[in-house]
Amino acid sequence: MENVNLAEKFSGFTSHWDPKIVGEVNGHDVKVVKFRGSFVWHRHEQEDELFLVHKGCFTMEFRDRHVALEEGEFIIVPRGTEHRPVAEEEVHVLLFEPATTVNTGDAESDQTVNEPERI
Amino acid sequence: MENVNLAEKFSGFTSHWDPKIVGEVNGHDVKVVKFRGSFVWHRHEQEDELFLVHKGCFTMEFRDRHVALEEGEFIIVPRGTEHRPVAEEEVHVLLFEPATTVNTGDAESDQTVNEPERI
Question: ipTM of the assembly?
């Protein structure tokens, strides 16, 4: 049982759309990820996903609207809902999601990371 | 699907050791809570608990050692592990735990909150 410093974890990698596992709680992973640019449209059939902005800002796009997210804000995307994160500038995001969750959901692409690294 | 601003949620109440539900994800609650002083020693038999410091600092005491937590740091307390949060000054904490989790675990006391409010 150690304290985990988020800034330190974020400083440990530079890649985008490449989630890293930093903790596990009740079958859920705590992940850190850097976004920049546009992700692929996708949905997760079985998993709700929480996105908490640690540093920066981004927009979560849904098919019918966009939600702007700033530092210290989170959004929960319910299972089955198509979404696409878009970040004009680099943003640091904390994710809570079931350990089974693949980042691109139903949309396998070159952005898919099947086995995130633990850091 | 709305953005939830943590600072705004924390500004909505002043009580200590009184968790408020601010989101739900896969049967887990996202809660905000203010600590000040010492909590009761307790454990959760079935639930791991994540504590993320939003503002301030506190110490998570275990029977054999203490872990200091600062802003932007989290700790995961595994199920079955006795613990006690202690905060010299007020601290704002985000919790991520199964919706079944009662704050005082096996140690019912006047600090027990059986049905946290949703804010």
Answer: 0.92
